[in-house]
């Protein structure tokens, strides 16, 4: 990219910024419902002992380490855009799998590990996306702006997820809405295109 000053307005008026930003909000919303309530779901709804249900977070954390590494390798071969679509759609299906298997412990752990594996790759992949679709000298600024979208999603999810669980008596609808948001995130990324100015 040519070394030139790129203004904030030039960044935020780009379609790429809004496509990546909205998809980042959607995947944040979709992911945090499960992250925030998976232990509560296991303990309260599936009647799993707390000592076991609390392991879900550990499984998510540890499975995310190889996930982030391997998905970045994949992106080197198929590109950032395709990788993000795969990641976001996979998050959606991992959440659905957790809903569908119920209290079947082996399958539930597989679903949770699958979610963690994919979830761990979101942050580095969005950072790579900012570098790919914007000049390198402003990639950090772009990523900072995009994090606002992620933060809004992360802050709104606990309120809406908890409220929906209260009025329906189950987390299935809340998690299902999160899966739908993650699927929409993947669909948004499909429309991501490069422009002449930004390479």
Textual characterization of the structure:
There is one protein chain. This protein has 199 residues and is an all-alpha fold. The protein has helices spanning 8-12, 15-45, 50-53, 55-78, 80-101, 105-119, 122-133, 139-168, 172-190. It starts with 7 loop residues before the first helix and ends in a 9-residue tail after the last helix.
Number of strands: 0
Q: Estimate the mean pLDDT confidence.
A: 89
> Roughly how many Å is the radius of gyration?
18 Å
Q: Give unreliable regions as ranges.
A: none
Count up the helices: 9
SSE class: mainly alpha
Roughly how many Å apart are the termini?
A: 7 Å
Shape: globular
Reading the helices and strands in chain order gives: HHHHHHHHH
Residue share in β-strands: under 5%
Question: What kind of sheet is the major sheet?
Answer: none
Which bin fits the share of residues in helices?
over 70%
Features:
199 residues; mainly alpha
């Amino acid at each position: 990219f040519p070394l030139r000053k790129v203004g904030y307005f030039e960044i935020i008026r780009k379609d790429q910024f809004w496509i990546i930003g909205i998809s980042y909000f959607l995947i944040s919303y979709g992911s945090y419902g499960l992250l925030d309530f998976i232990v509560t779901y296991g303990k309260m709804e599936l009647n799993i002992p707390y000592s076991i249900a609390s392991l879900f977070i550990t499984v998510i954390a540890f499975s995310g380490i190889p996930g982030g590494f391997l998905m970045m390798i994949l992106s080197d071969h198929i590109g950032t855009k395709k990788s993000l679509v795969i990641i976001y759609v996979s998050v959606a299906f991992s959440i659905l799998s957790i809903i569908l298997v119920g209290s079947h412990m082996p399958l539930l752990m597989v679903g949770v590990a699958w979610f963690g594996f994919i979830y761990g790759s979101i942050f580095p992949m969005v950072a790579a996306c900012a570098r790919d679709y914007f000049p390198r000298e402003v990639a950090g600024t772009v990523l900072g702006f995009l994090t606002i979208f992620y933060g809004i999603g992360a802050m709104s999810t606990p309120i809406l997820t908890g409220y929906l669980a209260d009025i329906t008596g189950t987390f299935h609808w809340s998690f299902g809405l999160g899966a739908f948001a993650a699927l929409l995130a993947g669909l948004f990324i499909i429309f991501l295109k490069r422009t002449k100015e930004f390479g």
